[in-house]
Amino acid sequence: MTTSTVVLALAVFGASAVEMVEALTIVAAAGVTRGWRSALEGTLAAALVLGALVIAVGVPLARLVPINVLRVVIGGLLLVLGLDWLRKAVLRASGHMALHDEDAIYARTVAGLSGAPSPATGRAGAGSWRHGRRDATGFTVAFKGVFLEGMEVVLIVITLGASSGHLALAAVAAAAAAVVVCVVGYLVTRQLSEVPENSMKLAVGIMLTSFGVFWVGEGAGLHWPGSDLMILVLVGVFALTAAALSFAMRRIGPTRQTAAVHGGRSS
Question: Are 78 and 238 in contact (CB under 8 A)?
Fold first, then answer.
């Protein structure tokens, strides 16, 4: 495997793991409060739709669009996505944005779902999960959670996979991340805050940004020194840049205006 292939697999795995942790939080809350049958059915339905999107969009994109055009366009998209992740990671690391707290999200979701009436009893948050009945609220919440978080995974799989010619590898890496997150989620259940999600987002943001720069350059006809090894250099450059920015912003400290703007945002 080449350097770019290894970094690609790690980037897809890391990004997918981050999004799946967020989806798992919602599914777990729906399962506990509304019934695991409905939550798992919603999860499976969303996974099937997302898989169909990868096949319907990714395969034609990889086969029909010229590779250089694909790399410039997709490299630009990866730059936008990666720099946004980096921006949020730097803000969190420097104390200008609240850390992403899956336990808090879980608690809020449970509180919201507990107030919805259940089909088994007609009362709020009671009975359906014990009797294994289908629950429309639990199905819908799980489906929407997995679908919305999974759309970013689909975007990353299609962009990274199609532009590199390794769509199958990207899909396998995403599926592996989903399996690992599900297993860990089953073991730790509500202790989702133990997953180092904020650090993972920083690492994935660095890798996505590096791929974006690399492929925009390649698509524009630039011959990188060392070919694929240049990706590792770009990773190092963006990692050092993120560390320097985090250090500088920690010394500045968050202002009241910054706290007011970013304090409630943790996505």
Answer: no
Q: What is the rounded CA–CA span in Å between residue 167 and residue 144? A: 25
Q: Is the model's pTM score more than 0.85?
A: no
Measure Cα distances from 212 to 8, 120, 189, 219, 255 in Å: 11, 51, 35, 10, 32
Q: Which residues contact 69 (CB under 8 A, 6 or more apart)?
A: 219
What letters, b where the CB count within 10 A reaches 16 and e where it falls short, cover 128-142? bbeeebebebbbebb
Question: With 0-12 CB in 10 A as exposed, 13-18 as middle and 19+ as buried, what is 35?
Answer: buried
Nearest-angstrom CA–CA distance, 20 and 39: 15
Range name among 5-9, 108-112, 176-180 with the lowest pLDDT average: 108-112
Q: What is the pLDDT of residues 48-65, one digit of tens each?
A: 988 888 788 777 776 777
The CA distance from 33 to 26, in Å, is 11
Neighbours of 78 (CB within 10 A): 27
